[in-house]
């Protein structure tokens, strides 16, 4: 099949040829040139050649191995493609286009990036037609102020798609956020909507306001609202069905809005407040803190409404704090600490995350904690709260340092398992932290006073295995250890160096010593537009 460019080139070629030979053709006795006969002749010739070339291209394409795949396989392949790549695949050839567009469910997750002046309205209409106006989710990014913004909003809000939509995501540039052209997107009834995300492309933009008549009050299934540098109009309409609310990427903590959400959503299960500044000690009148099962704070200080929420959440809850002014916070408020996990945030950043779980089903974590402060936390008097913990997971760097402190001098008496995390990336770094199995000073250091029956060596943060010598591992293991579990770690050397009393086992798949739950539990602090998945208009 000829492309548009090829057809134009062919038309120009035939026209130039006609001009060259017209002096010898199509003249009558009076010397009058019959232009229509020349055009008819060459149009017929072009049609014949184009048909022949299309038949040849179609026959050639049918012989390609990829085009011998059955339609079911092509549809399965298309189900794994993001929206923008799916659109590109549909333009590969006529067969692919026909097959991929035959299944409306493939096109039900619409992601559009309006990145400049263009035909936004037609792109939106085409996207709706492909899914037969029944999309599951719609995520749009309005990164350019264009006169068709209101037309796109009207096209979406006035159609029937809001009746079927499950997720709606809207990203606004500064100029559009200041206007109200996008309001129809969030004021039309959405009876099937479950999750809503509205954000600005940059947090330098003054936070725009959501309209007070959100979805015209008709969103009975909506349970999650994430606002990224976007506020709502007070008073907030009571929404008892909301279980998850998040304020993300704010400069100043929206204290008044947090209080309004707590009043309007009595069954709230998860609350996230992320702001670069959270120093306000303002507590709204008649505010009564209540426990929040999942509480995530970008910054915490021991005063104000956020402090009251932390104090109220003492059991059956998970508290996650990105930055804390008090490093002892994760170790407080427990009857007894059972599990402690230390995870590197970045191998070269010098920060780590501390996750602590108590026997009252309460989990507290602090991220972006200075590695040196974390070591001090384990070494000073706060470590007395850790003497009854049963499970400990930490990187080899921190364990190498703790071996040289008084942390293990007979105080930890209930430890049942110890997980030491290793990675090739960490092993290759020259510093600033020591490595357990790469420094002769630490490789021969044994925790004689530590009683722990199970030790796990686990590869963290990498799919590549870590190779260690049997001699180095055997020299380091506590004398009380009876089982050595290897998760993504290979032992090399003489097997006779390992004591017979220690049973060595492989674990599959590779795990992180029981803290997979916490690795999955930690969501992203920042909501971002999935630009790599979008169809750019």
From TrEMBL:
Pfam families: F-box-like
Occurrences of domain F-box (ranges): 63-110
Signal peptide start-end: none
Protein name: F-box domain-containing protein
Taxonomic source organism: Exidia glandulosa HHB12029
